Structure formats: C-alpha cells, structure tokens
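Notes to self after the Tuesday call (sharing in case useful).
The group wants a holo model before anyone commits to mutagenesis around the pocket. I volunteered. Ligand is S-adenosylmethionine. Logging inputs and output together so the record is complete.
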Amino acid sequence: MSKTENIIELEVESIGFEGISIAKKNGKVYFVKGGLPGDVVVANANKKLKGYIEASIQKIITPSQHRIEPVCNYYGACGGCSWQCLNYEQQLFWKEKHIIDAHNRLGNVNANCYHKIIPAKQKFHYRNKMDFSFSAARWLTKKEIEKDEAHNKHFALGLHIPGKFDKVLDIKDCKIQDIEWNNILNIIRDKAIKLGVQPIRLNKTGGGFLKGFTLRKSVLTNETMCILITSNLNNDDEKVFINWYKNDLQKMFPKLVSVVWAVNNKNGVNVGETQFINGKEYLTEQVLGINYQISPFSFFQTNSYQLDSFIGLIIDAADIKNTDTIWDLYCGTGSITLSVAKKCKKIFGIELNSQAIEDAKKNAKFNNIDNVEFYSSDLHSPKIPDLLNTLTHPDVLILDPPRSGLHNNLIKHILEIRPKKIIYVSCNPATQARDLSVLTDSYNLLNVYPIDMFPHSYHIENVAELEWK
Ligand SMILES: C[S@@+](CC[C@H](N)C(=O)[O-])C[C@H]1O[C@@H](n2cnc3c(N)ncnc32)[C@H](O)[C@@H]1O
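Result:
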C-alpha cells in the first residue's frame, strides 16, 4: 500500500475486549486507537495484522455524541485512564456489554441473570495507591512539545508509557489520585533535581539512584504513607536527599504520617528492603467494620470507596448462614475472608503469596477473628488436593483468581468435591467466561453482578453466583 492508500475514512462502531475500538469497512476490520462508537474519523491504516488492521486517528470529522473533553493533561499519552473521553454512563454501558458478550459466547447462559452494573461512588481521586517510577528518559507529550517550553528531558517522576519500558511520563497532576499527592510528587522531583540526585537509567548503560515512589492512603483516617525506592547510597548528595526526605517532607504535609525508604539493587522499582519508616508502620483502613493494617508492601484493593459495596455484594450473593463452612481461594490479604468470617461458622483462606498470608493472619488477630485459617499454597499445583482434602468440606466456595483465571487442576478438583454454591469474582470477563464454560456443565449460573471499581478505564470487576445442578 502506498502512503495515500493508507488514509481512510472510518466510522467507529463498537468497543471490544480491553477497550479496543472497532470499525468495519469493505469487509475489513480496523482497530482504531482512541476512537469511540459514533466517531467518524480520518485514520491512518498503518499496520496490517492477522484478521485486522491497526489504524490511528489523524482527524475526527464528526465526534461521537458520547465524546467529552478529558480532564487530564496527559490523556492519550498515559495508559491509565483511556476512557476519560467517554461519558460515564457510556463507560458503564460498555463494561456491562463486555461481560454479557464474553459470557454469551458460552452459549448456555441465562440472559436474565445479568444485573445492572453498580457505578463508582467516587469517579475521580479514587485510588488509594499509586506506584510512580523515576527515569532518566522523560517522555514528552504532544502538548508539551507544542508548548515549546524548555524541559528537563533527563528527569521524570511519573508513569511508564505503555510499551516503552524505559520512558516515563513526568506527572504533575493525576486526576485519580488524592489531590495533595500531586504536591508531594512535585516537591520530591524539585528537591532531587536541585540536589542533582540522579534517577535510574533504564537502558543498557544502567546507573542512577532514584527508582520508584509509591503513595498509599487510608480513606478511613485520611492519612498518607509514601515509599521511596532507591539503589544503594553512593554519594553525599544522595545522603542529603535521604535525610531531607526522612526529616523534612512530613513537616510540609501533616496528612503524611508514614515516610518509608527501601532499597532495591535489582530491577524492580516498587518493592525493596526497608531501611527506615519514619512515623506509622502501617495505615489502617476499614471495610464493613473490619480494620486492615496496610504495611508498605502489602496488597490491598485499590479503590477503598467501593469496597463496602464490592464485598457486600459477594456476601449477599453467597447467602451465608452461620452454620456454613467457606473456602476463600486466592484470598490475598483476606479482605473478603475476614468480612465473610463474621457471618459463617468457619472459613479457610488460601493464597500463593506468603507475605499476603502473613498480613491476613495479622489482620485476623487485629480484629479478634478466630474462626479463620489461612494457608500459603499454590492453587494451580497438581498436589493442591493434598491440602484441600484436609479441610472441612465447603458449603460455599469463593474464587477471586488473577486475570489469567482458574487453572484446570483446580477446576477438576472443584468438580470432584462439588460445593453447593460458588461465588466467582473476576476482573477479566474473558477468562471468567472460559472457566464458566466448564463449570456450567455442572452448575447453574444464577446471577451476575458487575461493579465499577476503576472509572475511566475499561477494567471491570464482576461477581458470578453459581449453584450445583
Ligand atoms: C484478584 S487477587 C485476589 C485478592 C483478594 N481476594 C483480596 O481481596 O485481597 C488474586 C490473588 O491470587 C493470588 N494468586 C495468583 N496465582 C496464584 C496461585 N497459583 N495460587 C494461589 N494464589 C494465587 C495472587 O497472589 C493474588 O493475591
């Protein structure tokens, strides 16, 4: 194809899996990055792939009636909130549709079991954790280039550009984090630049000191924890920076109750070995009356505002009785397990990550919950029945696997032990649909409850209720 042949007018028809916008013309399928259903665009059809052609928008001729102005300066460059240009009602419409479409491909599901999606209570500033990266290779947005201002291209503190591991977008104002965190980010960046402290070089040359910066929040107490990850201290400027970070940062931000420094000399930028914690060792968050200790590196669901509704949904769907024994598989730090424990006779939580299990046990103790047992184990191992067979048979099975879904070994075992009820929680409709296609040979899919935990992204959380046939 010549260059001019690549230029094509397209009307975007729908949004498919993982937020990909789709247009069709002359029997060909186009994936139009950034397009919305109803947009008529001039696009550059630049890459022919198996079954579709990738196209990038050159100009929007007629915008979709659902298109709105994104509020974020980094929209289009940052991979975080790719649906900020779509009004919220339509975001919910497409999230619901993606679940129904994925499940429909199974063939044997009951169309009446799909409930209306539960919208997010807070649409912006909802995240209780952000992981930022430093880099000596800053990515400039189109807007930044057009402004023609002088930019320090060798220092960035922000978010990685999708698909470019070494380039970081310098973020000064993120709309989904706590408003005050923007000031913390900006002060950290200014101080490091002033002292000449170097961010890491993520290319082959390597080197540099500053690696990652994580911010965490408790919505219950409105307190913040920050975690700086670096390589080993090498020079006096770095020592001055770390002393300032330890002793002075907190004075500017009264809500900053915990200042953590950790060192990681390997690749990872958001985990490390703790060197000091100035202030509180952990934040405390509350879900349905249960208190959770959140230490610097422990996992916790990222939208606290939505957690009561999310976990309440699971509890209601499970219809738990005080005589029930429950298994919570892939239990993480026990945010579902401990709330359910209050309603049932006995609950077992199983999870691969041993640190998460330690946190879950601590949180059980912290809340005086004694009808729960936690185990750290690989649920995908062929040996998993050895552990599961030692536990009391479950009346209800709760599953909350990672995006890759359930492993065949586990599905096989579930079908052997036949719990009466299964609550399958998922953040990936495609793998959930794949697993349901096996489980629904023996189980009826009774209800599906989608809930929006991540406004402005295509991500969706979904609770499916199944009952033995
Ligand atoms: C979606 S998260 C579940 C979070 C949990 N329900 C909570 O609220 O804290 C999925 C969990 O599966 C765990 N996981 C991943 N692979 C696993 C495996 N093979 N065996 C057991 N757990 C696994 C991850 O460590 C993660 O905690």
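Two things stood out.
Residues 129-286 form a domain with the OB fold (Dihydrolipoamide Acetyltransferase, E2P) fold (CATH 2.40.50.1070).
The mean pLDDT is 93.
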